[in-house]
Design goal:
It is a single chain. This protein is an all-beta fold. Helix content is about 0%, strand content about 40%. It has no helices and five strands. Strands 1, 2, 3, 4 and 5 form a five-stranded antiparallel sheet that branches. The radius of gyration is 11 Å and the shape is globular. It starts with a strand and ends with a strand.
Length: about 70
């Protein structure tokens, strides 16, 4: 089994890749939403709380984990 990569480093994330994000409204509970990356919204190479992305479903959140292919 491959390990999940952290979502705080931009180069770990690719468009079309699958990730687990935390949406703004789920930050308190830590509930994760899984989906395919449509767009990477964070410009910097890393972010302590996770790189912000938009999923193909339109949901926006910070990446916690990049799922292995």
């Amino acid at each position: 089994m491959e390990e999940k990569l952290t979502g705080s480093i931009r180069k770990n994330i690719s468009i079309g890749g699958f990730v687990e994000i935390v949406q703004k409204e789920d930050q308190r509970t830590g509930m994760l939403t899984e989906g395919e990356v449509e767009r990477i919204l964070t410009k910097s190479s890393q972010h302590p709380h996770g790189i912000k992305v938009r999923l193909t479903t339109g949901e926006v959140g910070r990446v916690k984990w990049v799922l292995p292919e």
